[in-house]
Amino acid sequence: MARIDFGISLAVRRYTWTAWIARRLGLPLLLVATSGSPATQAAGPAAPGRAAPDAAQAPKKADESRMWMTVGQRRFAISLADTEGARAFAAMLPLTLDMDDLNGNEKKKELPHDLPTNASRPGTIRSGDLLLWQSRTVVIFYVTFESPYSYTRLGKVDDAAGLSQALGLRDVRVVFSKN
């Protein structure tokens, strides 16, 4: 019983000391002071048997979550969403679509078959959003605006600068590829 009381009083003292440092010296010093605490030291390096991720696996994962969109001479990187629809779309690549302009803010094209959906209402559509409307229509938006419609997220253009100029207000050929 005395050991339990000692452990509790030690924890109370540690908390009080940490709170005093936070009040007197500010948060940056608190972080330094607590980084050497026994709880942090107990975590230590990675447990044996749990190796750090292989450096060769990191690029592979990045490649799986990225694709490219080429419009004329412009190439845009797209980060794929973590959805079944995005994985199914990526499995179709390379894919060349002659996309129709709609409403002066998007390009759309119906796909040859349905993709898995998980539709939600994003509210604000952003320039660079690559979305699936219903289950077959892929849409790339080049203007930001509010929308009441529901979509399944496929991906997002990483840097949408120049996207509206590349897509223009006309029908356009778009090539989606893995590299």
Overall description:
- It is a single chain.
- This protein has an 8-stranded antiparallel barrel.
- The protein folds into 2 domains: 2-43, no CATH class; 65-177, Cyclophilin (Beta Barrel), CATH 2.40.100.20.
- It is built from 6 helices and 10 strands.
- Strand 6 (129-133) and strand 7 form a beta hairpin.
- With 179 residues, it is α+β, with helices and mostly antiparallel strands.
- The chain starts with a helix and ends with a strand.
- Oligomer type: single chain
**Low-confidence regions:** 1-53, 55-60
- Percent in helix: 25-40%
- Shape from CA axes? globular
Strand content range: 25-35%
Task: Give the biggest sheet.
Answer: 8 strands, antiparallel, barrel
Mean pLDDT: 77
User: What is the H/E string?
Assistant: HHHHEEHEEEEEEEHE
Tally the helices.
Answer: 6
Strand order across the biggest sheet? 1-2-9-6-7-4-3-10
CATH class wording of the largest domain: Mainly Beta
Radius of gyration: 26 Å
Kindly give the count of domains: 2
Please report the distance between the alpha carbons of the first and last residues. 66 Å
Number of strands: 10
**Structural class estimated from helices and strands:** alpha+beta
CATH architectural grouping of the largest domain = Beta Barrel
